[in-house]
Amino acid sequence: MPYFRKDNVVLKENNEGRIKELLAMGYQKADEKGKVLGKKKEETVAKSTHEKVVKENKELKEKVKQLEKEQQEENQKASSK
Hints:
Blueprint: E1 3-6, E2 9-12, H1 16-24, E3 28-30, H2 47-80
C-alpha cells in the first residue's frame, strides 16, 4: 500500500482517485517510515515565456483600468440625466 508525505503528515492510501488528489495537493510518495522516495521536480518556464506573460499581464491591467474609467464615465452620464 503506497504512503504519501507532506510536511510532517504521512498518509497510507490505495484508492487511485485519492492518490491523484494527494499528489495534486503536493504530497510526495514515501516509504512506510515516511521517508520521501523521490523529490518532486521543480517546474520552470523559459525566460522568454515568462517575459511574454508579464508583458501581457501589464497590458491587460491597463486595459481593465481603461474600461473601468469608461464605465465610470458612462455611469456618471446616466445618473446626471
